[in-house]
């Protein structure tokens, strides 16, 4: 299996206000684990910046204009109460999108079997016409549209296991039966969307979980609702909104998932990709705010992508020690 890893230094220059959970240290934690011996065989690439035409397949021109216009020369500008731009934010957001579209190129050209994009800011809350919830542009939705425009994909699925519902991806996909959105998430929780009754054009599959739910409920929701629908949809590409804030350590959610659950869902998605689309998966980092939980979860997710199996990385807990006081 050839797994390609996209990163970009601009992810370290998207600064957020003091105490904000979506912080630079997240990428340091991810870089540290993916820089360890276990990941020697990863092919690594710097993400290009997004092309505006690619962003505009998922967002209205006014949204792109607004984000560019608000970008501050110093300090912060807020797009909503918890979505702030610093001087480095626009560049980071553009590279986060560029990683996802370059990832699509890589899996369709055969350069890689699958791709992980370890960049920030996240994207799944960004709607066609607004930034929200730490997100500016919706990488997963843009990648899905790009696969159709640039590589002739007919049907693209996004699987989202972030603890929050990807309202942006759902909104962008809402009336397009050739785009699939399947999500597990905690409800009630921000952003408030994600009920089973939100079905779009029959292409939206929400499987909400309750605070306190863990491995058994998560796996059952995926296995009975999301994965069978994915199978019936028969995608030409699977994009993963890989948020790791459903981890039991995470401060923003109350689900109780472990790294093994992230390994399990990764392997399930890989099996579906193998059956339907030659294994093509582009996985994009979304949330995950406990640095130790994030690093361990990203580690096992990428290990699964690389090997088609995954074991606990035995040195994770010892080698990754973080200060949470950023
Ligand atoms: Zn989240």
Secondary structure layout:
Layout: E1 3-7, H1 24-34, E2 43-46, H2 52-55, H3 61-70, E3 77-80, E4 83-85, H4 89-109, E5 114-117, H5 139-151, E6 156-160, H6 167-173, E7 179-186, E8 204-209, H7 215-233, E9 237-242, H8 259-277, E10 281-285, H9 291-307, H10 316-319
Parallel strand pairs: 1-2, 1-5, 5-10, 6-7, 6-9, 7-8, 9-10
Antiparallel strand pairs: 3-4
Helix pairs in contact: 1-9, 4-5, 7-8, 8-9
Bound molecules: zinc ion.
Condensed summary:
With 326 residues, this protein is of the alpha/beta class. The protein is built from ten helices and ten strands.
Keywords summarizing the entry:
single chain, 326 residues, alpha/beta, 8-stranded parallel beta sheet, two-stranded antiparallel ribbon, 10 helices, binds zinc ion
